[in-house]
Automatic annotation (TrEMBL):
Catalyzed reactions: guanosine(46) in tRNA + S-adenosyl-L-methionine = N(7)-methylguanosine(46) in tRNA + S-adenosyl-L-homocysteine
Name by which UniProt lists this protein: tRNA (guanine-N(7)-)-methyltransferase
One term under GO cellular component: tRNA methyltransferase complex
Organism of derivation: Marinomonas alcarazii
Binding site for S-adenosyl-L-methionine: 66, 91, 118, 141
Lineage of source species: Bacteria, Pseudomonadati, Pseudomonadota, Gammaproteobacteria, Oceanospirillales
């Protein structure tokens, strides 16, 4: 399962609640070489501040943002299968970023860029406001224990931060294999103003064809595990 790589920002007088744990952040020598060799082509830097999608990709196109892409295989596949769109991945795990860039180069994918930074900071300081056509959050850390539920990334504040990035009609697409987290996502999103459930109020969405079926999901299906997709449109 992918680890969700961002944090929930609270008012400045409160302690920040992180929704991720960085595991295995040190890269192997091979991963470091891949990272260094491909960063100039695919990498975006937090200190550079607010970007312009047309400048980054050299064209006008729909832009999809994905947070917490893990090792990147499904995001590279999506970008390859939708050359008419542009994709930006955000992941705090350096080996995953290195792997994504290596796969993108091998597949000849040019419509993909990546941040290796905290998603909340990137969303607040780098991404254009009200411009993206899609925002993806697939298999974030469910934080199973009740005392850790506050660390789940899908909270009212995060939903509104996503809305700030999406244009009108843009889609916020979530997926999880943990039913209690799916129920939590549904509860949070149904209460948000400015969103409409694409499947109908209180309904989960069938897995759309544009979301690749991961090896993790395929294994889960064989074991009888469920996966829940939720898609909300910004209105």
């Amino acid at each position: 399962m992918q680890e969700q790589d961002t944090e929930i920002q609270e008012p400045s007088h409160k302690r920040t609640i992180r929704s991720f744990v960085v595991r295995g952040g040190r890269m192997t020598e091979g991963q470091q070489k891949n990272y260094d060799a491909n960063w100039a082509v695919y990498g975006l830097n937090l200190p550079d501040g607010r970007i312009d999608y047309k400048t980054v990709f050299g064209r006008e196109a729909d832009v999809v943002i994905e947070v917490g892409f893990g090792m990147g295989a499904s995001l590279v596949e999506m970008a390859k299968n939708a050359p008419e769109k542009d994709f930006i991945g955000i992941e705090v795990h350096p080996p995953g970023v290195a792997k994504l860039m290596m796969l993108a180069k091998e597949e000849g994918v040019t419509n993909l860029r990546v941040y290796c930074d905290d998603a909340i900071e990137v969303m607040a300081n780098c991404l254009p406001q009200h411009k993206a056509s899609g925002f993806q959050l697939f298999f974030p850390d469910p934080w199973h224990k009740k005392k850790h539920n506050k660390r789940r990334i899908v909270q009212p504040l995060f939903a509104q931060q996503v809305a700030n990035v999406l244009k009108e009609g843009g889609l916020f697409h979530m997926a999880t294999d943990w039913e209690p987290y799916a129920e939590h996502m549904m509860e949070v999103m149904e209460a948000q103003e400015g969103y409409q459930n694409a499947a109908g109020k209180g309904q989960y969405h069938p897995r759309p064809e544009w979301r690749p079926l991961t090896k993790f999901e395929q294994r889960g299906e064989r074991l009888g595990h469920g996966v829940w997709d939720l898609i909300y449109s910004k209105v």
